Each structure stands twice: as structure tokens, then as C-alpha cells.
Amino acid sequence: MGQMEEKSTRDRILEAAGEIFGLQGFKAATVRDICRKAGVNVALVNYHFGSKENLYRELGRDLVTQTFSRFPVDVFDPDAPAEVRLRAFVHATLSRLLSPGGLTGYPGRGQLMARELADPSPILDNLVEDFIRPTAQVLAGIVAELLGPEARDRDVMKGQISVIGQCSHYAVARPLITRLFAFDPSDQQNIEDLADHVTRFSLAGLASMRQRLEHPTEKPSDPSRNKGD
Amino acid sequence: MGQMEEKSTRDRILEAAGEIFGLQGFKAATVRDICRKAGVNVALVNYHFGSKENLYRELGRDLVTQTFSRFPVDVFDPDAPAEVRLRAFVHATLSRLLSPGGLTGYPGRGQLMARELADPSPILDNLVEDFIRPTAQVLAGIVAELLGPEARDRDVMKGQISVIGQCSHYAVARPLITRLFAFDPSDQQNIEDLADHVTRFSLAGLASMRQRLEHPTEKPSDPSRNKGD
DNA sequence: GACGAATTCAAACAGATGTTTTAATCATTT
DNA sequence: AAATGATTAAAACATCTGTTTGAATTCGTC
Lengths: 229, 229
Description:
The structure is a homodimer.
Chain A: H1 9-24, H2 31-38, H3 44-49, H4 52-70, H5 82-98, H6 110-118, H7 125-147, H8 153-172, H9 174-180, H10 188-214
Helix pairs in contact in A: 1-2, 1-6, 5-7, 5-8, 5-10, 7-8, 8-10
The first copy, chain A, binds a DNA duplex through residues 9, 30-32, 40-48, 51-52.
């Protein structure tokens, strides 16, 4: 018989904490619930992690680092055309958010990150920013290239948010989406399909932005715009 | 002197509750904090509202009904072209989410609704659905018209989410956006600008979807698709 | 101005919460 | 097997929680 070793107490707590924290949020979750789910004594959270707060911090760190290592930001050839890089970025982003085991992958620890996005706790603050800012910069590079040299920072930002907003909505509003539509954003086939859709939709949107930047036909609404950066 | 009557205790509690609940969430907020901020005795929450839970419920009801009455869903002429209706819908949605006093308008009660979106509490459950489902249906009508007769339900859904995701990201990820960019989504001028951007971006994206629906040139990935609905 | 109802207040209550303590158990080394 | 250190367990602790109580105060009305 293979020496199927049981998981360590530490890991059992971490796993249970993921579900309880994800389901109820930091404050509403109780260490007693977590320990009951993990099948361990109440004192062991403080023995292994020092405090409830530390457990949450460590859980968040694991969740983010593991997910970003499974679905890295730079999965594409940097010399590939921007269209291809956008597809790769969108696919990685959707996978990171939606895949089973991803940031909002399965019910339970799912909404932990959605909550942190809407309302970053001081605890995960740096962490969220450490991972999200670089990711945003990668997307900014792709979008800037697609928008062309006329694009100002503000334009790049709007393009970025239009792309990322489409992706993150499936994660953030997942409870609503599964209720309003009969649709499972975690299904692998759907993720592929969504990546195609978001990429195509965004390429058209960005092209439209670029066209307007290069041919500001009607509505010269803002005459004080300086292109030569 | 004008009889500048002070606000009633009830209203003072409601106001303070908006800030505390919005800032900390239902569970983390304490009635003692709320009462301290309102400058009233601890017992008055239960006297005027029956319970903390009821206070939260009533607050949520007020917030949603007031905001939807300020920024209604049907602000447009139903006979107007779909492009115009989309612009009106997007503008109303962004205003509802971002305007000062709107659902995520100012710090405090702001993130209450963002939280409920990511993780609807049983308390506001029906409420959220009562307001969001009809809104989604209005958008579905607009998107369906823009996508043309070839669009299936799944296509409409994807189009919807691409539009609404762009809007809601400014609200849901507001803490991140204000940190990553120097941008205030609540500024009236910015809301107008964003409405233009999202509308234009989406029209291009939807047009691209339609073109592919009507001319499925490459990648006949799904041969089992029946158009004549 | 007095009566009665509505409102406000200080205090207390019962239960839950994160954490600590102290002793028991387990694993590893000698 | 004894000793040592790490881990687990049961119980208690101090604090905080929403809520209730009962008296004080205010307000409208006769």
C-alpha cells in the first residue's frame, strides 16, 4: 500500500480556512468554525499561525502566489504581435480568475479575492498591489501598442479597464451571473470561449479607439490636447 | 432664524450605518460604532429598527431604491436607435454606480454594494435580484438588437457582460483604480467621458461580434449551431 | 400644568470570540 | 526505555457582541 500520508495539521487548517474565510469574509469567519472543519483543536490556529490575522495573511499569500505561478502573466513571446499577446493575456487572466483552484475558482475560497478586489484589507494590501500592478503594466504595454502613438496615458487606462473589466466581471459578479444565466464560468470549455470573445471584442473596441485618436473627426471636445508627449 | 431642524435620530443612525456598514461590512460593523458615529445611545438601534440585521436590510433597501429612482433604467426613448439607447443605458449605469451619493459614490457606504455584488448576503438577496434582473433585461434587448437576428442567447449574454463589465469595474475595483491611476471615477466630467468611451468601445465590439455571426468565415468550430431559432 | 405615550439613557445580560494556559500525548534521539 | 522537544487537547480568560431592561426624560395633548 502506498504510504498515503495524511495532510499535516497546518495544511488542514489552511484548507479549511480557505473555505471559511472565502465564504464568510475575515471578520465573520471564526477560528472555531475553521478548526471544526479542519477537525483540529481550537488552540492550533494560534500554535501554528500565531493569530487569526496571520492565518488570513498567510492564506492570501499562498493563494495569490500559487495561482500566479500556475497562470503566469508573461506566457507569451514578447516579440509576438500585440493581437496575439492580448489573446494570451486575456486567456491567462480568465484562467487565473475562473479556473477550478484559481482565485475565484470554486465556491468557498472563491469570493475571498473578489472581496479583496472590491475592498482590499490592510492585510493583503501590499500583496494585491505587488501582483496586480505588474500585471496591469503588462496589459498597458499591449494596449498602448494597439492604440498607437497618439494614445495618451488616459486613453491607455480606459482601454486597459475595458479589457480587464470584461474579464473580472465573470469573477466578481459570479454569484449574479450563475443566477441570471445558466452559465458556469469555471468550465474549461467556457474559459476558452470567453478568451476568444473578450479578445475579439476588445480588439474591435481598441481599433475603434485608435481610429478616433488618429482621425478626430467630429466632436473636438477637448482642444487642449497635446499629442507630442 | 430659519427653523433648521436637526435630523431625526432614525436618520442619523441610518446615515452613520451607511458609512460603517459600507466601510467594514455587515459582520465587522458594530452597532456601538454606528451609534457612536451617530451620537446616540446604543439601545436606539434596536428601538428604531428592531435589530442590527433589520437596520442593514432597511439601509440597503433605501440605498438601492433611492439610487435607482435618481438614475432610472429607462431613461431613453424605446423607439430610439439601439446605438442611442446603449449610450443612455451606459451613462445611467455609470452614474448610478459612480456618482457622488450613488451606489459606490463616496467612501463609506460605497463598498457596501460592491461587496453585495461579489457576495450577495441573504439579506439583500431578493433586493439585488429585483433590481438587477430587470436592468439586465433592458441591456439584453439593446444588445440583441445590435447583434442582429443571428445572435443566440449565449451571444447576447457575452455581449451584455462585456458592456456591463466595463462599467462595473470602475465601481468594484475602485480602490485599485484610484491607486494604480490618478483618476477619480466619481467626477462628473469623467463619468461623461467614460460613458462616451464605453459606448464607443462596446459598439465596435458588438459590431465585430455581429460580423462574425453573419459571416462565420474561419474556424467553424461549432457545427451544431442552429440559426433559425 | 398634568397626564400619557414616545423616546432616550445608563446599565446589565447572555452568548460568542480570539487567545492563553496548563497538562497530556506523540515523535525522535540517546 | 528514558529523556527531550514538538504537537495536541481541554479548559479557562478577558473582551467584545447584539440585545434587553427599567428608569429617566421629552413631547404632544387636554
